[in-house]
Design a protein that fits this description.
Elements lengths: L2 E7 L20 H6 L7 H6 L19 E6 L7 H8 L17 H11 L3 E6 L2 H15 L2 E5 L4 E7 L5 H14 L8 E8 L6 E2 L4 E4 L7 H7 L3 E5 L2 H4 L7 E3 L4 H12 L5 E7 L1 H7 L4 H19 L6 E6 L18 E6 L7 E6 L3 H9 L12 H4 L4
Parallel strand pairs: 1-11, 1-12, 2-14, 3-4, 5-6, 9-10, 9-11
Antiparallel strand pairs: 2-13, 4-5, 6-7, 6-8, 12-13
Length: about 400
């Protein structure tokens, strides 16, 4: 194969993993919750075989699928974006990244203030929309940075764009990223700029993630080292701290991410296009917006046939997710779930591969399809999905 398009539907989980209760996620099922909405309509995915995947029996199956399908189990000790994507790229993380349910230690905040020259507000797990509502006025008055976290391994910094210019906020995030290593090596430092007046603050699209560098060689590193293109669409570059990427195209939401990926299908390259569609998670899962989640899935479903029409004889499309974020759950956090895998292509047999261990199955399969040798976790599905005459 010449090109692989790998699209991550951020947080589109398909049912609780066996150990979900340890994470407080027993009974979660992102797609099932979204399917309860009257706006849920995915006829194309159903026709292609999505409903044939284990755990999606409540959807309509088909006797004439066109995609190979599987359900993947996460082996890493986590349920966040960073660890999920790292495992997709072949790194299984046996230890979870640090989280801070009671806020960050005072010594961390003191050092951060020393580096930035600004004080700190909040220092608690918080909803991103609620934290600017509750602390925005104090921030505007004092210039102190709003620092907060979540159930994920994140150090988030919110600031009004007229009080802390974007470049200063990004600089402060870089300082925090350099500081937060070792014991306090959180997965991501995230810039969360906002605008507006008291009572009507609103986050902007200028979010930027500063990720911990992967601890080992990823699929992206391997592909780049062996002369392949690695085009990162959306927040992929951020997740991998830029490593292994040959071209970055930043996007602001699902619509732009899908549009960019479609345009790339019309261009010539040799390697991997790795796309993250973040709205499922950021806009709908974390806000428990079932209808919004359903609409986003329906929009992706409507876009998919046009993209498939652009695939050439030597192209493969893989669709998956990195964790769950059940919009119907009482929690607003990520959920520990299985993820779907769909593989499309002119030479792909529409087989049902059952349940497979590790998201790293994807890394092994992509490398194999592109004819690249790699070491690491994951077992390739190439010999099972390539149609034989």
């Amino acid at each position: 194969m010449k090109r692989v398009f790998l699209i991550v539907l951020d947080s589109v989980g398909i049912g609780a993993l066996p150990d979900a209760a340890k994470f407080g996620d027993a009974g979660t099922h992102t797609v099932k919750s979204a399917s309860a909405s009257p706006y849920f309509s995915i006829p194309n995915l159903i026709k292609y075989g999505f409903g044939n995947i284990s755990g999606l029996e409540f959807l309509t199956g088909t006797d004439t699928p066109i995609a190979a399908v599987a359900r993947l189990r996460e082996l890493s000790a986590g349920k966040d974006t960073t660890i999920g994507h790292w495992e997709i790229a072949g790194l299984v993380s046996e230890k979870p990244l640090p989280t801070y349910p009671d806020g960050f230690p005072q010594e961390v905040l003191d050092e951060f203030s020393r580096l930035t020259g600004r004080g700190v507000l909040c220092n608690k797990p918080y909803s991103g929309t609620e934290v600017i509502k509750d602390y925005g006025d104090a921030h505007v008055k004092t210039g102190d940075l709003i620092v907060y976290t979540s159930a994920d391994s994140v150090f988030q910094i919110a600031a009004h764009e007229e009080i802390v210019p974007l470049e200063e906020l990004y600089r402060d995030c870089r300082l925090a990223r350099e500081m937060l290593r070792g014991e306090h090596g959180v997965g991501r430092v995230i810039a969360r700029p906002f605008v507006g007046e008291s009572g009507s603050y609103k986050r902007t699209a200028n979010r930027h993630d500063f990720s911990l560098e992967p601890w080992g060689e990823t699929l992206l590193d391997t592909l780049k080292a062996q002369g392949k293109d690695v085009i990162a669409v959306g927040k992929i570059t951020d997740i991998f701290a830029g490593r292994g990427v040959t071209e970055t195209i930043l996007t602001h939401g699902n619509d732009e991410g899908m549009a960019v990926t479609l345009e790339l299908a019309k261009k010539d390259f040799n390697g991997l296009c790795f796309t993250n569609l973040v709205d499922f998670d950021m806009l709908y899962g974390h806000r428990n917006d079932v209808d919004g989640y359903a609409k986003a899935l329906s929009a992706f479903d409507a876009w998919l046939p046009g993209f498939l029409a652009e695939l050439g004889e030597d192209d493969v499309l893989m669709i998956t997710a990195d964790h769950g974020c059940d919009p119907g759950d009482v929690s607003t956090d990520h959920s520990r779930e299985y993820t779907p895998l769909m593989i499309f292509g002119h030479g792909i047999a529409p087989v049902n591969l059952g349940t497979r261990d590790s998201f790293a199955t994807i890394a092994a399969t992509v490398a194999d399809l592109l004819g690249v040798s790699r070491a690491g976790a994951g077992t390739s599905l190439k010999n099972e999905v390539i149609a034989h005459d």
